[in-house]
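Predict the 3D structure for this chain.
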Amino acid sequence: MRARLTIFVVISILIGACSTDGPTDTQPSLTSPLPTASSPPTVKWGPCSWGPADCAVIEVPVDYDDSGLGTFDLLVARHRARKPSERIGVLFTNAGGPGAESIWLAIDPRWNFSDVVLDRFDIVGWDPRGTSGSRPKFDCTDDIDAYFSLDPTPETPSDRMAIVAAARSFVDSCIQNVGDLLAHVGTADAARDIDFVRRLLGEERASYLGYSYGSELGATWVTMFPDTVHAAVFDAAADPTLDLVDWLTFQSIGFERSLEAFLDECDENGCEFVTGLDDARSVFDRLMSDLARFPLVVDGDRPPVGEGVAQIAVFNALYRKESWVLLDQALAEAARGYGDRLLSLYDSYFGGWRDGHPDDSIDSYVAITCLDRQADLTVDDAFRAMDNLALVSPRLGASVLYELLLCAHWPIEPTPPPDVEWSGATPLLVVGSTGDPATPLEGTRRMRDVLANARLVVVESFDHTSYGADDCATRTVDDYLIDPTRPAGDVDC
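Done. Predicted structure below.
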């Protein structure tokens, strides 16, 4: 369903922001002018609320061409290189989404980076404009169930009218609650923010490691600011050549293939939800059909677990092979009449929870994705795409309707990032896995191709993202960040 996805989906990490109980002189200035070579302003760092890093709020212009439109406050964390005498520079890192908080990658990076990287780089993570801890806060609605639990395969005119009306209501809430700032959260804007922060830090060049959508953000950054790039790694790299509809079609095929692999494994090794003499596909299809007709009621005020909730739960569990067991358990419980595990997977797909409500990552995701679209699309375009996807992704493809209808109602003109290209002499590094459902390897190869002399690392796995999960990929990325001339060619892991 989601066009660009974050590094971790099933496990949500809730972090603190900047410490608020420290001395006032550690709080950053919120009136810093644009940095210049002659008089760069100073970032005032203070201790983060947890972890060994420092945090700051950095003020960036809403529009780099019009300073009168105000500012965004970016929440930024920096973990200093542990061996200053061997320090290479700054490593920016982004977890994906779009809409995912990324400050946690730097607040305690011991969980996210190898020792050799921690020794030699200042790790800098930030919540991009419009996301998580950065401000102004993007909050379209606290009731995501009102839209995303609806039938993703509406067949009757009344069902279609209901989901169209719900999409319009979601978008209207975004416009009402966020307003004109929605026009300034695109990927190109976020890439300018990277360069802004680099200049504030006094770095002539910087390195970058981005996951999933973070590869698109990073590729936009290297395209726009090639002279500032020391090294860049794009893990689970997305295809930068496709528009929204084509990308969602391509991604749906990837998830369908992963579901097929999961069902194959169930037939080969057995799964809890498969009982009797039927094969896994027959049982799965029958269960989904039953959920569409007879949604499972759960405790509290949550929506019944119907086909919409179940499909999003399936998407979530397919990101990493280690989560297939969670999908098996959830399907088995659903077959016994209990929908709680499917609902849990559905909930974690949308991120963490704060104050009894989902966090706002889906709100930010919609705003960024719809602004980045290459062309306007209509409600009729969305339904045609849904019908076409049934041919190439019959079990999961229909769910892209959720996203397409939101972008079909988006009232702001598209502002897509520039076409990705690389004019620098240093090779970039692109990483993909053979069974990645969210950013299929064919698209990762296209990212490598448009980046000229980029090196490609291919990992044999069904996982989305590889750094830190695969030893060979991790070692290759570490070696490259230390010495961007390595590897000399493509690597198969």
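The CA atoms of residues 75 and 188 lie 18 Å apart.
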